[in-house]
């Protein structure tokens, strides 16, 4: 899953970071952060697989403590709803990494200090609008002459079952962390944008109106991707060494706001994201219709058609004949394509990137790798006795090692940081647009809608009926607030994928 290459990845000069941006994020910065944090560990720890001896040792990595929410009460939240009825009412959800991970279990387990399962996790949507885990299934395929092993874990109130449930959750979180970093983040934002940028530079002139519209959203992406290939996703890089390798959340409904009805009504990312999407779409519509008042101009624009053709046939040569590719024949086609691209580089990337330190910097909340098997997989008397007498130690051994945890913590801090010269969506008009009164007016309307979104998000976070973003100990959801100050803020939507 990693890439093996030379240490330097070429980036064209016009795609490279500015001086200030280079200071904010570079391979040298990542290295310096790691070297600042690791010396004491590296001199004291001969065994790089060494875990944490107790939970207070984890807290010593941080300047501030972490307040953990109290355990929920013992009342069953599914007892009055039959499973079949729960399915019909769309109350059951599944996080399914079974088929995705199962083929890699044997290979991953060959790496010292690393394990893997195929996993399925079942969730129930409560009356309060929050998801509660009901069951976790962990599966090991037949390997090394042993038959398939599979076990289901559920929340329980006896001591042994409680610790097994915690261990099972640690494994699933490691699966989800790896998927988040490599698929939701790297693949679906960073990688997906590269073919658009390359084709734009090859097929669109710099004075082409679509090039001018998209340029702010493509800025710095090639540079940051090159740096990621050098330091993060390369062979033996931080992702490989420290990480384990959703559709149907909305249905079309013309009577609902934005034309979609959410399956989970209190879904902060979707609710805030739909407002941002609508604002982007309206801005793109105003811009495109100014230059393409009718669809014939879209079809006859040779540069535009060559750009879209290269994206499909060269940038995605292995998928060029897939039926799901959008057509580019009408004004609406062009608006939809450009809106999607801008959304991915701005809102989507911000949502999956800038909250990483707050939610995963304290790694027991989001462990990135599991190092030991479940004690019930192949229990022997000695191991079972150790688990029953010291379950906390067994959990700590499953968590990332001290070296792994410290590296991940440092990298997530860097990735979650806004540059002092960050260019936020809708904040400043491009010089090439300012001289056109029609485009300038459209951009000002767009900017005004984004300022309104900030107020909407603040109001939602203050609404005590929205339990996924408001309440005691609940982190307010601010990842899609358009603007931010520099630093780690868990808010702010930059124009482009630049970190």
Automatic annotation (TrEMBL):
GO terms for molecular function: metal ion binding; oxidoreductase activity, acting on single donors with incorporation of molecular oxygen, incorporation of two atoms of oxygen. Its cofactor is Fe cation. Pfam families: Lipoxygenase. It comes from the Eukaryota. Residues 1-71, 86-499 form the Lipoxygenase domain. The keyword RNA-binding does not apply. InterPro entries: LipOase, LipOase_C, LipOase_C_sf, LipOase_CS, LipOase_Fe_BS. GO terms for biological process: lipid oxidation. Keywords: Dioxygenase, Iron, Metal-binding, Oxidoreductase. Gene3D superfamilies: 3.10.450.60, Lipoxygenase-1, Domain 5. Belongs to the lipoxygenase family. PANTHER family: LIPOXYGENASE (PTHR11771). This is Lipoxygenase domain-containing protein.
